[in-house]
Amino acid sequence: MPYDTNLLNATARALADAAPDADRSGRFPWVGIRAVHESGLLESTVAARHGGGGATLYDAAQILAALGRGDPSVALISAMTIFNHLGQAAKNHWPENLYRRLLVEGKQRPLLLNAARVEPELGSPARGGLPATLARRTANGWSITGRKRFVTGAHGLTHFLVWAHTDETPARVGTFVVPNGLPGIRVIDNWNSLGMRATGSHDVEYTDVEIPAEDVLELVDPSVAQQDNRAHAAMTLALTAIYLGVAEAAQEAFIRFAHERVPTNLGHPIARTERFVALSGEIDLLVCGARQIIFDALKAGPDDAERYIRSRIIAGRQLREAVQIAVRGIGNPGLNAELGLERHFRDIQSVLVHAPQEDTSISILGRAAFDRWNREEAASSGHSSDLPILRTA
């Protein structure tokens, strides 16, 4: 469903007003999160069968780009909930009573969900492996024990979606829905990143945290529990739209500076100089080009994992380069916090850090290219023609 541009812009402005303080303090960005909640955007992807608007992944990417222009930390925290609603709309894998209860709760306050998957020893599950976190069966449900890393929005989440293995024989692996604030939950304030500071992606430790037996998603055999990076490629591309918003905010800051800066020896804005016209053109090429790449790929369908992965990497590299050009072109003022470019520069560094990271994504593309070549070789081996075989990307 298309979203009102005025609503998106007004929400982005509210986020932008609060972003500098959230970045400086590193505290949970409640002002921005409440603005997203009040706009209705947090529930944008709730399925129509649950009374929601049924926004698609393409719609979600448009929303995230707008929120990213305002505050990418708020956008990233919001994305986790938006994507979880989208997953439920597609797979209907949540226990019905639990999901409906959460939707009711979300009408009263921001409902914030996020997966807790990364572990100190395992690292990101995008690289393979199974969780050490244990879900022990009790008389009344499950008891969760383990430690997770990089839990975005940890202090403000209403529920952690904790990936764990059971103590059953044979063991199973699943996602356990753990309300925040229960006894045994400890947020360890160790997020001290270059950028995206207000995401509060701290470690969280769970010690014998009790939850009901039915509050678990997709308990499966460990042999089928590996993260499928290809299956998540479209969603990961949509996440990149947050950083498109960062680059667009940086582009706007660059253009405004160029029009407001009038050196006395020049007598007119530096925007009229050939140097800044050329810099503006380079930035526009990269930023607007990235927008086309992201949204053309999301619009195209059907699912094409290699296209999504390729688009994400190309767009991410362009967005990072565009912000770097803006900062470098302005010089010292670009490194001053007052202009905002310095914060955008720090935030954009995270564009390709999210799992699967760049090297894993490149490996997927490399293997796919080899497989394509092998299939074409096998298909052409029975032909006697001397004409070359056309190899498509």
UniProtKB/TrEMBL annotation:
Report the SUPFAM superfamilies cross-referenced here: Acyl-CoA dehydrogenase C-terminal domain-like, Acyl-CoA dehydrogenase NM domain-like
**Family matches, as CDD domains:** ACAD (cd00567)
**Which residues does the UniProt record annotate as the domain Acyl-CoA dehydrogenase C-terminal?**
239-355
InterPro entries tied to this protein: Acyl-CoA_DH_C (IPR013107), Acyl-CoA_Oxase/DH_mid-dom (IPR006091), Acyl-CoA_Oxase/DH_mid-dom_sf (IPR046373), AcylCo_DH-like_C (IPR036250), AcylCoA_DH/ox_N (IPR013786), AcylCoA_DH/ox_N_sf (IPR037069), AcylCoA_DH/oxidase_NM_dom_sf (IPR009100)
Q: Where is the Acyl-CoA dehydrogenase/oxidase N-terminal domain?
A: 12-79
Matches recorded under Gene3D superfamilies: Acyl-CoA dehydrogenase/oxidase, N-terminal domain, Butyryl-CoA Dehydrogenase, subunit A, domain 2, Butyryl-CoA Dehydrogenase, subunit A, domain 3
Assigned keywords, A-Z: Flavoprotein, Oxidoreductase
**Transferase as a keyword?**
no
Q: Does the keyword Oxidoreductase apply?
A: yes
Coiled-coil residue windows: none
**Pfam family example for this protein?**
Acyl-CoA_dh_2
- What protein name is recorded for this chain? Acyl-CoA dehydrogenase
Name the source organism: Rhizobium mongolense subsp. loessense
